[in-house]
Structures are given as C-alpha cells and as structure tokens.
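Bumping my old thread because nobody answered last time. Still need a sequence for this structure:
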C-alpha cells in the first residue's frame, strides 16, 4: 500500500513520510492548545455512545432473488418480499422498553445529549458502570423469565413457519418440492449443520431438490439462535467511549462543562 499525502493535513509521524519536508503536528502552537484542551475535557467527562446489540432478530424472504423458474411459482401470486421477526410485537415492545431504560440513566444532572450520544460527567463514571452492569442483569432476567421453558423455541418455530408457509402458498403444483407437514427444531438443526458443513449458500442450493424450500428457510434463519442461552449470549449493552479530533480543539478554550457543551453544538 502506497502512502497518500494530503497537503492540508499535518503528520503525527513525519519521519515515516516519503516527503521529508512534511511538518509535524507537534511543531505548531495549536497542537499544545488542542492537547491541553483534550486533557481538560477528559477531566470533565467523556463522550459516550450507547449500543444495544443482539436484541432484534429478523429475516427477509424474496422469492425473486432466488432465481426460481417461473413455472415453479403461481402465475397469480404477488411475490412481495416477506419480512419476519423472531418475536411477536408484544415481546418486541417489552424489549424496546428495556433499551429505553438504559438511556433513562442520563439526565441534566449527570450529562448532556450530543448528536452522537451523551457527554457523561466524570463524577458519574462509577454510577454509570454499576448501572450498566445492573441493566444487563435486568435484561437477562427478563429473557429468562419470559422465554424459557420452551417459549423461545416455539417463537423460533413460529417465525420459521411463516416463511415456510409463504413459500408453500406461492409455489405452483408443477414445482417438484415436497412440503413437510410438521416442522421440528431437531430437523432444522440437522439441516443447518449439514448445510454449514458443506458450505452451502442460497445460490448453491439446487432448486429442483424436493426439500429446497426447507433448505432456503434454514439458510435464511441461520443467523438466528435456536435456543435461549445462545440468544442471551448475543444480547449486550455496550457503552462506547468516543473521542474528538484535535483540530476541533485547536482554536478554542475548554475549562468548564459549558465550554464542552458549546463546542458540541458547533460540530
């Protein structure tokens, strides 16, 4: 990879540049001011972005994208893409409430909102750390209480069946496919494992296979856990600390939280 030089930028490591005349950012007075402001800002708090990962599980099914022979599909069928959620609306609403509760920690006494998250005052770092740990526990307890004892597995089967039934409804009698009367988790798991071991993809599946629709749905839902503990392991509340480019700190003065607030309003 060949290095690219932008004359409008200053180099942090000019000795590594092909152009020996490239000035170092550390040689200009603005650098000292920017670095000083960064240190003072760190004493006041930190920019935080909240990411809640793994809660929403969904797949889409578009028969047009599968390159199925037209004869295999009903002529009168409107092949609108189908989007299927793992959980019904009521469960999704409850999970959404839990994500809102995470953000409820932030208020005017401990932070202020920015365009990319929050600026959390340093005095509240310990409380935030404890709150974050507790909220992860609350989410896990809700999942365990609401989705254990076979409930999660049934939700998986239901959302798998929605796509499978849609495929059946849109297929023509001339299609060589055989549709299963009963869907079982163990059958889905077995086919999922076989397809993974053979490195199969949607494009590599044979459309004339008797079990083609089932295989398609197995691949479409392969990213979704089939058991609760695997789903729980994917649900995380992440607190990401963000930084700010030194160029924004070169021509300003940071001494108070209000100074930080005014700076973010300009970004």
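Sorry it took so long. Here it is:
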């Amino acid at each position: 990879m060949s290095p690219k030089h932008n004359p409008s930028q200053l180099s942090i490591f000019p000795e590594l540049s092909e152009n020996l005349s490239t000035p170092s950012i550390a040689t200009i007075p603005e650098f000292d001011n920017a670095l000083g402001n960064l240190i003072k800002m760190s004493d006041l708090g930190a920019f935080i972005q909240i990411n809640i990962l793994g809660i929403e599980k969904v797949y889409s099914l578009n028969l047009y994208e599968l390159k199925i022979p037209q004869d295999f599909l009903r002529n009168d069928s409107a092949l609108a893409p189908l989007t299927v959620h793992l959980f019904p609306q009521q469960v999704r609403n409850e999970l959404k409430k839990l994500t809102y509760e995470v953000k409820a920690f932030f208020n005017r006494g401990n932070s202020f909102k920015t365009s990319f998250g929050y600026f959390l005052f340093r005095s509240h770092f310990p409380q935030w750390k404890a709150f974050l740990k507790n909220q992860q526990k609350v989410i896990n307890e809700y999942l365990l209480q609401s989705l254990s004892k076979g409930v999660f597995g049934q939700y998986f089967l239901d959302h798998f069946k929605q796509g499978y039934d849609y495929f059946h409804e849109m297929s023509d009698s001339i299609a060589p496919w055989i549709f299963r009367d009963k869907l079982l988790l163990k059958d889905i798991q077995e086919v999922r494992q076989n397809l993974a071991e053979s490195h199969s993809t949607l494009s590599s599946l044979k459309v004339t296979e008797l079990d083609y629709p089932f295989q398609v749905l197995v691949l479409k839902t392969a990213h979704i856990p089939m058991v609760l503990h695997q789903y729980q392991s994917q649900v995380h509340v992440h607190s990401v600390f963000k930084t700010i480019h030194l160029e924004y700190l070169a021509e300003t003065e940071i001494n108070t939280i209000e100074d930080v607030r005014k700076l973010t309003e300009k970004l």
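Confidence is low (pLDDT under 50) at residues 1-16. Let me know if any region looks off to you.
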